[in-house]
Design goal:
Elements (H helix, E strand, L loop, with lengths): L1 H7 L4 H12 L2 H13 L3 H29 L3 H8 L4 H30 L9 H6 L1 H20 L2 H28 L5 H9 L3 H19 L6 H7 L7 H34 L7 H15 L1 H38 L3 H27 L6 E2 L2 E2 H27 L13 H11 L7 H28 L12 H25 L8 H14 L1
Antiparallel strand pairs: 1-2
Helix pairs in contact: 1-21, 2-9, 2-12, 2-13, 2-15, 3-11, 3-13, 3-14, 4-5, 4-11, 4-12, 4-13, 4-17, 4-19, 5-6, 6-8, 6-15, 6-16, 6-17, 6-20, 8-9, 8-15, 8-16, 9-13, 9-15, 10-13, 11-19, 12-15, 13-14, 14-15, 15-16, 17-19, 17-20, 18-19
């Protein structure tokens, strides 16, 4: 097992931290966080977000990383090792990234296109590019090949090495752009005021839920990634300290993204008198290109660096999504890494074609090729991010908080002190915070995740109309039912095909390599 770990696992704690941080730092950090901050009370939202990272994000991340670390295997095996009947949670955690890959890779292709086109006018290409499906497919393929190449090289020689280069590069570029934006002059003060002015009256209950949800989603929780990456760590990795570093890095990047974006956005608006969209795809692929084009030659350089940084963020996220599914295929079906990653990438690429067509119609104002009233990308995003991921994270807390250790009496089941001692005996120690962590993972964090799930589902089924009144939406109900149907499928498939069969360990990949070498000899 140790030899296998050296061949397949992370070579260092730093490599693991950077890879996990790379997974957490994605497109959401670069547009979702800044917009939600500005729309929900500025610094008030940031404060609540940081608290949410502590009480939700860090707890779930510790749980998921440790669940993977103790198993040294894929998510299905990891949950089975806690309790046989929980293995379906692992299968669920494999299905979620598979669906996310089908649309995230398209956005990755967009970032490649906008990076390469930075020295032309990016502000003029959104409609023509998104409507040119062959070109979108080509850039999606380029992006997927980049990610595929990294994952194909393995964990130590691919994911870890690339993360050690890309994460520092992303941070340096982001700091440089933030400094540049803050020095633009006119409009910068207004941009900072919009972004960071603390306004607790603007926070409200929706802002509280938004902060909780953002902390949860921005850390790549509830999708099997941290379980898979955790399985590649050894005894030298301290889970608690690693999670602290990952959370700090992820939050710092999100905060810096706002400092890079809003001063530049408001500078443009002050100079031109034109109001720009400040959230979503339009912020990233329409508003910011206008800002960069307005800055002349220096703006082209800034555009190239900015979208190059976005490519890095998207790439590290897709690499981690690919690894979750690839790891399971390798270990369960004993298919070598190259074939496994090609199977996963081909499937996701084929599904991405109709998704890109649907998104192109939506961006160009055509109500065509929709699922439950949404373009395919938004449909997949709602199903995975809003409904399924919180359920998977909730399952991680339940698995660690209620099924570790063998209580001698029934009352111990509900006693956080028993869980604290059981986790330490099992191998998870978070120092003097052990008792606090036991209470959080057993009671408080699962309850908060349920709130995120419930209100997320309510927002889909009962969205607010123009007058701010919630109305029933049949299409929203269809989205939620689709998500829960996928959950049911995962449960049925697990208990029919996997519950009584071996689902593999990381050492299996090493054994496959040895078998191949023996055959070659």
């Amino acid at each position: 097992m140790e030899n296998a770990k050296k061949r397949n696992g992370f070579a260092s704690g730093l490599g693991f931290i950077l890879a996990a941080a790379g997974s957490a730092i994605g497109l959401g950090n670069l547009w979702s966080f800044p917009y939600k901050t500005s729309a929900n009370g500025g610094a008030a939202f940031v404060l609540l977000y940081v608290i949410s990272v502590i009480v939700i994000g860090s707890v779930v991340m510790i749980a998921e990383i440790y669940i993977g670390k103790r198993s040294q295997g894929n998510p299905v095996t990891a949950y089975k090792n806690i309790k046989k009947g929980l293995g379906w949670l692992g299968l669920f955690a494999v299905i979620i990234p598979l669906f996310i890959l089908c649309y995230y890779s398209i956005l990755g292709g967009y970032t490649v296109k906008f990076t390469l086109n930075s020295f032309n006018k990016n502000s003029e290409i959104l409609s023509s590019f998104t409507g040119n499906i062959p070109e979108v497919i080509m850039y999606t393929a380029i992006f997927m090949i980049l990610a595929l190449t990294v994952v194909m090289a393995g964990v130590k020689n691919g994911i870890e090495k690339v993360s050690k280069i890309l994460m520092p590069a992303l941070f340096i570029i982001l700091v440089a752009i933030a400094v540049y934006s803050l020095c633009l002059g006119e409009g910068v003060a207004e941009g900072l005021d919009y972004y960071l002015n603390p306004d607790f009256s603007a926070l409200g209950f929706k802002g509280v839920l938004a902060a909780m949800g953002q902390a949860f989603f921005s850390l790549s929780l509830g999708m099997g990634i941290m379980v898979s990456y955790g399985s590649y760590t050894g005894k030298e990795v301290n889970v608690g300290k690693s999670v602290l570093m990952i959370c700090i890095f992820d939050t710092l990047v999100a905060l810096l993204a706002g400092l890079a974006i809003f001063p530049a956005l408001y500078h443009y608006q002050a100079v031109s008198g034109e109001s720009l969209s400040d959230h979503g795809l339009l912020l990233l692929f329409s508003s910011l290109p206008l800002v960069f084009d307005n800055l002349g030659a220096i703006g082209q350089i800034v555009s190239f660096l900015f979208f190059g940084m976005v490519v890095i963020a998207a790439l590290t996220s897709v690499i981690s999504l690919l690894e979750v599914v690839t790891q399971f295929i390798i270990q369960k079906f004993r298919v070598n890494r190259k074939k496994s990653i090609c199977i996963v990438a081909t499937f996701c690429f084929l599904v991405s074609v109709p998704v890109s067509i649907s998104l192109g119609f939506s961006i160009n104002g055509k109500d065509m090729m929709t699922l439950c009233g949404q373009n395919w990308l938004d449909f997949f995003d709602m199903v995975t991010n809003t409904v399924l991921m919180p359920l998977c994270a909730f399952g991680s807390c339940v698995a660690l908080g209620w099924f570790i250790g063998k209580p001698k009496k029934k009352s111990d089941i509900f006693n956080p002190r028993f869980l604290h001692l059981a986790l330490e005996e099992d191998g998870l120690s978070v120092g003097f915070l052990g008792s606090v962590f036991a209470v959080m993972v057993k009671y408080i964090t699962p309850l908060l995740i349920l709130l995120v799930e419930i209100f997320g589902v309510v927002d889909i089924i009962f969205p607010e109309n123009a007058a701010g009144i919630r109305v029933f939406d049949l299409n929203g109900l269809g989205i939620v039912l689709t998500a829960y149907a996928l959950l049911l499928v995962a449960i049925v498939v697990y208990f029919v095909f996997f519950v009584n069969k071996e689902t593999g360990y990381n050492s299996d990949e090493h054994n496959l390599l040895k078998e191949k070498e023996s055959t070659a000899d």
